[in-house]
Structure formats: C-alpha cells, structure tokens
Amino acid sequence: MPVQNNDLLNCQAYYYFTIKVAQNYPALKKLVESYSSRKEKSVFWEDKVLGESNIIDALLNRLIWELGNIHGGCVATLIDICSSLAILTYEGKGGWFFVGVSTDLTVSYMSGIAAGQTCRLECDVQRVGQSLANIYIKVYNKDGKFCYSRSHTKYCIDSKL
C-alpha cells in the first residue's frame, strides 16, 4: 500500500520516512537525518543508491522500504544499506548504537524488476546479539511478486569506536 506524501517527513530531500516511524524509532530518525545532512558536505556512494527511497513502515524488529528504479547489479548494495538500518528497530536485550559492518551476505535473484518500477524491501531482524546480528530481506515488485531475497549478518562495532 503506497504511502501518501502528507505522511512522509522530508529529511533535507535525501531520505523520507513516515511520521509514525520517526516518533517510534528516534535512533533511526537521528541516523537518517545524519545521512541526509551529508549532502552539502560531500557525496557518498550510498546517497546516490538511495536517491529515491522511502522508509514506509517500521515495526518491532522490522523495517520496510519503498524504492524507485532498481537495477539487478545494484540489488546487493541497496539491500545492504536498507537492512543495516533495520537493526535500529530492534528493541530486545543487546540493542546496538551503530549499525555495524557486514560479515556475510547472500542474495538470491528469482526475478528482475523492470526499469522505472517501484519495489518494496522488507527487512526482518532475526537476531541481535552482543557481537552479531542477522537480518532476512525480501524484495517485491509493484505487483507483490517475490523477486529477491537476502540473508545478511552484521558485526557490532559499538565497543570498537
């Protein structure tokens, strides 16, 4: 179900997320605003990749994105960024301050998504431990067809910084 424009908060024109998400997950809001403020300082590769992305919902241990045009070669990068931010929806024991670094990722390509078509990423946080987190991601096209999946493992860097 598409999100209406009046339900979205604009973080300096880079990333959008719903008012509900901003209220329920202040750490996620703070990180998104931090990423968005970089636009004027320098250009980062993930900023170009997520140019047309919206966080449309966040639930306990789950983050859902809606993206514009997606290229098959870009899927792994998109899923990496989107699933990393999902760690900030985890509310159990051992929550992390930072989103960590990837230690393992596997992408399965079942079907492509046509150019110009909107897609939906559902990032489910399976586990967040003291050192490792596991996220499972599903990507659907605009018609709800299951197109890509990914298993993602992250390593916590909180105590290293």
TrEMBL record:
GO terms for molecular function: fatty acyl-CoA hydrolase activity. PANTHER family: ACYL-COENZYME A THIOESTERASE 13, THIOESTERASE SUPERFAMILY MEMBER-RELATED. It comes from the Eukaryota. This is Thioesterase domain-containing protein. Belongs to the thioesterase PaaI family. InterPro entries: ACOT13, HotDog_dom_sf, Thioestr_dom. Keywords: Hydrolase. Pfam families: 4HBT. It comes from Circinella minor. Transmembrane segments: none annotated. Residues 68-147 form the Thioesterase domain. CDD domains: PaaI_thioesterase.
